[in-house]
Amino acid sequence: MPQTTSTSTPSPTATTPTTKTLVCRVCEKGFSKAEHLRRHERCRKHPGSELSSS
């Protein structure tokens, strides 16, 4: 019985570049998910953010 070898092909998401359509208004860093942008905007480095006054 001959052995069959399976060749795996990379998934399209692994090779397709992600478009970053959401941009931080302060530093212009791009994000692909809104939740990541919201988390980034709350960081201490941005003036006016919730944590910057501490």
Automatic annotation (TrEMBL):
C2H2-type domain residues: 22-51
UniProt KW keywords: Metal-binding, Zinc, Zinc-finger
Biased composition annotated in UniProt, kind: Basic residues: 36-46
MF-aspect GO terms: zinc ion binding
Region feature (Disordered): 1-20, 35-54
Presence of the UniProt keyword Zinc-finger in the record: yes
InterPro entries: Znf_C2H2_sf, Znf_C2H2_type
Name of the featured protein: C2H2-type domain-containing protein
Originating species: Aspergillus saccharolyticus JOP 1030-1
